[in-house]
Recover the amino acids of this structure.
């Protein structure tokens, strides 16, 4: 079994606050997009029809573009 002698982990206390905020924002935005796409798929599956013309990727991209 190999042992890891050096760690490449990133710890919050070693990062500047602006970097922590940016990572937190990106993670929150990703989770919102994932939740939105899953809910859209559930709605389409329950109604047996798609209410969108574009692909799922493009729909999520347009919804979260700022």
């Amino acid at each position: 079994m190999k042992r890891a002698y050096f760690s490449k982990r990133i710890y919050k206390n070693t990062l500047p606050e602006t970097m922590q905020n940016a990572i937190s924002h990106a993670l929150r935005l990703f989770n919102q997009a994932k939740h939105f796409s899953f809910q859209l798929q559930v709605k389409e599956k329950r109604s047996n029809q798609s209410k969108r013309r574009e692909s799922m990727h493009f729909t999520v991209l347009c919804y979260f573009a700022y």
Summary: The chain has a mean pLDDT of 88. Residues 17-65 form one domain. The chain has one domain: 17-65. The chain has two helices and no strands.
